[in-house]
Every structure is written in C-alpha cells, then in structure tokens.
Automatic annotation (TrEMBL):
Cited Gene3D superfamilies: 1.20.120.1080, P-loop containing nucleotide triphosphate hydrolases
Record-linked InterPro entries: DEAD/DEAH_box_helicase_dom (IPR011545), DNA/RNA_helicase_DEAH_CS (IPR002464), HA2_WH (IPR048333), Helicase-assoc_dom (IPR007502), Helicase_ATP-bd (IPR014001), Helicase_C-like (IPR001650), P-loop_NTPase (IPR027417)
Region annotation Disordered: where it falls in the sequence: 1-23, 182-202
Gene Ontology biological-process annotations: positive regulation of transcription by RNA polymerase I
Lineage: Eukaryota, Viridiplantae, Streptophyta, Embryophyta, Tracheophyta
Domain of life (superkingdom): Eukaryota
Record-level Gene Ontology MF annotations: ATP binding; double-stranded RNA binding; helicase activity; hydrolase activity; RNA helicase activity
Name used for this protein in its record: RNA helicase
Biased composition, class Polar residues, residue ranges: 182-194
Amino acid sequence: MERQGLDAKVSTNDCKSENVSRKRKLAEHRKSLPVASVESSLMQEVLRNDTLIIVGETGSGKTTQIPQFLFNAGFCRDGKAIGVTQPRRVAAVTVAKRVAEECGVEVGQKVGYSIRFEDVTSSSTRIKYMTDGLLLREALLDPYLSRYSVIIVDEAHERTVNTDVLLGFLKKVQKTRSRSLNDSFNTENMNTNGKLEKGNNGKYVSSLRQHRGRKLHPLKLIIMSASLDARLFSEYFGGAKAFRVQGRQYPVAISYTRKHVLDYTEATLITIFQIHLEESPGDILAFLTGQDEIESIETLAKETIQKLPESKRNLVVIPIYSALPSEQQLRVFAPTPPGVRKVILATNIAETSVTIPGIKYVIDPGFVKARTYDPNKGMESLIVFPTSKAQALQRSGRAGREGPGKCFRQYPEDMFYKLEDSTKPEIKRCNLSNVILQLTALGVDNVTEFDFLEAPPRQAIFKSLEQLILLGAITNDGKLKLSDPVGHQMARIPLDPIYSKALIVASQFNCLEEMLITVSMLSVESIFYHPREKQEEARAKMKCFSSPEGDHLTLINVYRSAVDFLNKKKLELSKEKLEKSLRKWCKENFINSRSLRHARDIHSQIRRHVEQMGLPLNSCGDDMLQFCRCLAGSFFLNVATKQPDGTYRDFSSGEVVQIHPSSVLFRKKPDCFGGIQHWTAPLQKVFGEVISTERSTKFLDSATVSEGYTVD
Ligand code: ADP
Ligand code: MG
C-alpha cells in the first residue's frame, strides 16, 4: 500500500514537473519567434494607424502572437474583444487551442473560437478566432461589430470570397464607427497621439482606456498576409501602412522531375519513400488536393511501411484536411519520438494557414483543388488546377523554416515558368448568391456598386441576383423584401440560399423535420462508403436504405435508422460506448461514420436556428407526395426533364444533364427529376402541376411554384 502511495506521489510530481517544463518550453518558443522582437514597435504602429497591414513569412508568429500582444496592450479593456478571422476552419480551431495553451487557459474562456456549427466561446472570451464567413454572419446581428476593438483579417492573401467581402464590409464599418465617434466626441484623436506605456503591472496601458464609456470605439483593422505584395491592400485602404516582420528563411534546394509525371499521387508516394530511405532526418510535408487522395495515399504508404525492413519502419503517416475531426488535426503538431520521421499528407491548408514545425522536405505535385463557377450554366464545381507560381514558392518555403531544406516538385522545370503568377481570387470564380444575400441583408442596397477589393464579373453578380429573385429572397430591384421575412430568414440560416429556402418552404409543407434531415445530409461529404474490395456487399447494404422516391428519402432513411439504433441502445450504453457502437453499425452498413456524425452536428445546429426563427418543426409522416412537392418547390432551379431522344435537359438553362450513376434513379429514368449535387428525386407527378403550358420554360417564377403547390 505504502509503495503504491509513493508511486502515486512520484507520478503527480512527475506530472507537475512535466507541466512546468512544457510551460517553460512554450515561453521560450514564443520568445524565439520573429514577431517577439518587434512587439513594442508593432503595438505603437497599431495605435498610430486605424488600418495596418502586417506582412510576415509563415511561421513568424503572426497568428498566434499578435492577438496576445494586443490583449496585453489593453485592447480588451471595457470587455471588448479582439476578433481574428481565418479563411479555414482548421486554422481557427488549431490556433485557438494553441493560443489558449500559451495563455494557460481552457479554450472557450479567454481564448475561444467559433466556426460554422461549432461555437467554443463564452462571455469571458477576449481573443476570438473564427472563420471570415462567421464574422459576416455575426454582423447580421451586430452591424457595427461593436463588441470588437480590433479585427484582424488573417491570411488575406488567400483572397477567399468571404475575405474579400469582409474587407469591403469592414471598411464601411470602420468609417461609420469613426464618424460616430467624431460626431459625438470631437476630442483628441487617439490614432495620432496614442502613446504606449507600460503600467505598474508590466502590461501595456493604451490610450484606449480614455475612451471608456463611449458608445462606439474606433475600429482597428489589421490585415495580415504571408505574401509580400501588400500594395493592393494598402491602396484599397487609402494608402494604409504596411509593417513587415522579418522571418527566417534558410535555403531550400528545389528539384524537378525530368519528364511529365502521369500520376502525381504515385510519384508522391515514391518520393516519400525515396526521402525516407535516402535523406537525412527531418519531417516530410506532401501537398495533395483532397481527402480522397490523402486517404488513398495514407493507406498505400502504411502498407508500404509494413513491407520495409524492421529498421526502416520508423515512419509515421499523418493526414490533415478540413473534414478531419479536430482532435486528429492536432496530431500534426505532436512531436515524433527520437528516430521517427513523420510524413504529413496535407491539402493546401498547410500552405500558409497552419504552420507545422519540423518540416525539412516538401513534396509538391503542383496541383490544388479550387472552386470554379460557370455563370452561364449557374453551376459551381470543385476542380483540380495547377498551382500558381506564388503557391509553389509558398510551398517550397515551408521546407526552410528551421534549417536548410529540400523541395521536390513533381513536374519538369519548364512547367514552373508556365504557371500563372498568382491565384485568381475566389470572388472571380464562384457562385455569389450567398455573398449577395449576406450583403443585401447587411444593408448594401446595390451590390453592383459595392466597393470590392476587386469586383467579381458582372455576369456572375447578375446570375446570382436572378437566382435570389427566383428564390423569393429579394425584390426585382435587388433589395431585401420588406413585406416578406423570407430573405431575412434565409440570410440568417448558415447554409446555401437554396437549402435555407428549402427549410422555409418545408415548414409550410408540413415536412420541416424531413427537410432538416435532408439538408444536413446534403451538407456533408459522401455518406455512403464503397470500399473497392467490397463493392457488391456495400451495394446490397445500400439497397436496404434505398427509396424508390429518390435519394433524398434514401438519405432520410439512413439518418432515421441511425437515430433509431442510438435510441435503442441509449439506455444500456454509456455515451462513449454508444458512439463506438454507432461507428460499428456504420461500418457494417457501409456508411461513413464521420460524415454521419457531421450531419448530426449540422442537424442540431440548424434545428436550433429554425426553432429560434419560430418555424414549426412539423413532419409529413408517410405522406411522401407532400415531401416530393416540397422538394420540387425548393429545388425547382435544378429540375431536368426527359427529351424525346431520351436525354435530359436542365429546365432553366437548357443544358444537357445526366442522372448520376450512384443515384437510385439512374436505372429508373423518370420523365422529370430534380435535386442538388448528385442526389436526385423523381418529380414528374408533382412538378407537372406547376408547369403551365403557355408559360415560358426559361424562367419559372418562384411565386408561381409555391402557389401551384398550395392549390392542391
Ligand atoms: P504565422 O501566423 O506567422 O504563420 P503562427 O503564429 O501560426 O505563425 O505560428 C508560430 C509558431 O507556432 C510556429 O512555429 C508554429 O509551428 C507554432 N504553432 C502554431 N500552432 C501550433 C499548434 N497548434 N501546436 C504547436 N505549435 C503550433
Ligand atoms: Mg498565420
């Protein structure tokens, strides 16, 4: 007994000393970062300038340190918060967890994060990491973003559509807030006389303190970027000052392939093992385009490791991509035991958003998956593109952060010179419906005149306006409908406008419960999982859920079967065991348990939204015709009808379309179907009700659709 007690004491002491040494290491690491040496000059610049652009290489400590500097400089007095936006969810989560640890607090307290469908903040949160899209949504409830004293728009060089829109919106808010301050208090201008002094407690005291009690603080804007071109941002913000943080960059030796490679995934796999077997110690970072590619290389790499001689099996494979659960994402930061090399398989989130330490080798196949939009067809898709030169340089730079490194580009050298200089901003190649609805709800009346950093193509704006008019969200002159709350309601639901409209329509069709499940399941990546070696077995299982009434009902069947399973087991199992047995159930039924979990999360979040909005959570029971009517009324923009020659044409654009082979309708060939992505439902019975013979088939007025359905 005594011995045991002693052991326990020793292990508690061990734990304590481990904690102390971890804290010390964290503090040392923080001090060693390039931004640490410029803290006070940087804070002086923030005080002097309303808008500041900070440029610094990846890994210099911008994202993790600068919000902490601002906190220490007094920018969170009076309960104000510092908001830091990220284009990627992964970055918001991992960085918030890291900064919470550096501050010695639980994430969700002083440091928190908020991303779509996950809010880990509290009233005490002062440094809040979030996605740029989330801040735009927050603005719907707080148009002056009055709880923030500073907003940092991080990774601005990524030029995601939300970043671009946010910049335009923040520019407006900043003007309004300083106008309100000048109007009501024509006193000293804190931007020019703001002097930074250290107080008794060693923390900075800023002149912000003098502004206590005022209604609106001036808003400080900080735009951060890893790329060197600050000019565009500076000009946009009226010649805003750019502050450069000198990063460390060691030389990186670049090698190219001699010939074009036919299969870059295979080439990447070979290169991983060449490095592992021939090069000195150091971790490897390989850039791939998406989850599927990463998963298949992960499996192949693990199999190959098993075939190596025992002494060479010291290689661990770690994936990172946005759909990975966040505990697993954090694995990339865990140091490997001595003598073990790690290879990280990442999407371009590891390009600049997430800084992974220890990388000495980079493998760059030269591709990236990105959104494209065809305004003529009104269709958006994810396509694999060659990277730009700027991206290739960013990627290779990742090998030289801690010492000299090597980058293996999986293409011949002449290809590099043919790459575009920089990536086209997303706003020029995506569907703008969501953004336009958001802007309209934020009070921007004429989106074609909005002060964008770079304006999107007018044709894309018009196409999206047309879609929103057809969905009944805005009036013909592009304003949010005052007489009808539908546009406001749609803007508040964090989903694509088509899905938001579907939920609102469903509440009128008595099938909100069914539609809520449908949009949750449609919002996640592949629900069904068909491993190559078990195709037949998987197909047979899928049939158990299949509904002749289409894929949407099939998805509902899967969701409800899972919920039934959970309800049955709920009484006998603990929460942890319950999730484990659900994973087993998913495996047996060839369902992707991660996607299902994600769908359940989305379901509970959206359910909260619709309940708050007062929509009745009703169900149509077995009346599937009612649900199909609702599908037709919701997805009428994506309806296709069979032509005499047996092909299908999209109802509004006239484009030839096909039913996806994975759809339950693939063999049935209905006369008319509708849906979204590759999930389709036969709509001939119900859709026929609303197609009047004289009406042009080019545009279908949404009002007519709903009228058509209410008159049974
Ligand atoms: P920047 O924004 O300039 O690219 P960051 O502030 O993200 O730099 O990162 C600074 C340092 O902190 C890097 O060395 C990075 O490896 C480390 N770091 C960041 N996030 C984590 C994390 N979650 N776990 C461990 N180290 C991290
Ligand atoms: Mg960063």
